[in-house]
Amino acid sequence: MSAYGFGWFLDKENPHRVWHSGSLEGFRNLMKRDMQEEVLLLYLTNNSFGELAELSKKIEAILFEGSRP
Fold first, then answer.
1. From the CB of residue 60, how many other CB atoms can be counted at a distance below 10 Å?
2. pLDDT value at position 64?
3. Cα(30)–Cα(32) distance, rounded to whole angstroms?
4. For 36, phi and psi rounded to 5 degrees?
5. How far apart are the C-alpha atoms of 1 and 9, rounded to whole Å?
6. What angle do CA 21, 59, 63 make, to 5 degrees?
């Protein structure tokens, strides 16, 4: 079973959350959407090093501390 549909990767643990990422030389992006909460987070960087997904988790922990199940 694939976890990809209509241009979005599906979060197997939270089916109402989807994401998509991309990169080119010197550019990276990550878009996360929570369809239940109606939230869209867009991460853009001109740094092609490091793990953007891990950084996004840390930022979201700060933004949504105590407000998400």
1. 15
2. 84
3. 7
4. -75, -45
5. 12
6. 120
How much is the pLDDT for 24? 85
Dist CA 49 CA 7 (whole Å): 24
Q: Categorize the per-residue pLDDT at 42 as very low, low, confident or very high, splitting at 50, 70 and 90.
A: very high
Q: What is the distance of C-alpha 5 from the center of its chain?
A: 15
Give the CA dihedral 42, 21, 48, 25, nearest 10 degrees: -120
Q: What is the pLDDT of residue 30?
A: 94
pTM over 0.85: no
Dist CA 37 CA 17 (whole Å):
9
CB atoms within 10 A of CB 18: 20
Averaged over 37-54, what is the pLDDT?
Answer: 87
For 47, the token pair is: 């740094």
